[in-house]
Amino acid sequence: xxxxxxxxxxxxxxxxxxxxxxxxxxxxxxxxxxxxxxxxxxxxxxxxxxxxxxxxxxxxxxxxxxxxxxxxxxxxxxxxxxxxxxxxxxxxxxxxxxxxxxxxxxxxxxxxxxxxxxxxxxxxxxxxxxxxxxxxxxxxxxxxxxxxxxxxxxxxxxxxxxxxxxxxxxxxxxxxxxxxxxxxxxxxxxxxxxxxxxxxxxxxxxxxxxxxxxxxxxxxxxxxxxxxxxxxxxxxxxxxxxxxxxxxxxxxxxxxxxxxxxxxxxxxxxxxx
Length: 273
Hints:
Keywords: TPR repeat. This protein is mainly alpha-helical. The chain contains 14 helices and no strands.
């Protein structure tokens, strides 16, 4: 199955774009030659509508302008945080996740601490998932690693955050670093939901569908409510020429979800069986 076909069929799912842009790596061969790339760091604060589902009306912009006027030069840390947090929430509501992350990072710098680092890092990670520009994607990935890395230094048991950091490396110039991190997570927690899902996605992207089947089978056995994992299992079975099992898997999934994108994908594959 061509990568472009995967993107078309799975349009609307959370990791569709990530699947499309991941480098072609063989996840079971650490000596595979990897692509080179990357970019510099910089601020991702902007008022342009360049992020997923972004929508800021004139009233939003006026609110932001007023809050920024109050925030700038505010000597009291508590008040600064209130203004910055309010601005970030307006940007979040308008789909400007990268700009929201920038203001959460201002809070994390003004008042360092696990909660603020995690909020900034998670928001940068969300923006990273929607970024369509390679240089900006790399900046967002770097910011994600910076803030979530601070949390991991204090809470190394946070495998959920380690998984996010791993995925920022997978789409970088050093994807094997991310894959190695995912393997480490699975060594520590063999049933880890996010790591199994992402390793399955990576196996699909590199055309290793039988390996993907193994990952998704283990995922859905331990996390039966993971609907995306159920769908990707059906796709991987189809692509590995296990048509009867694929049909059974996809048909059983039809009664478990009302997501129109997943249902459309199911029908697409069933029509091809």
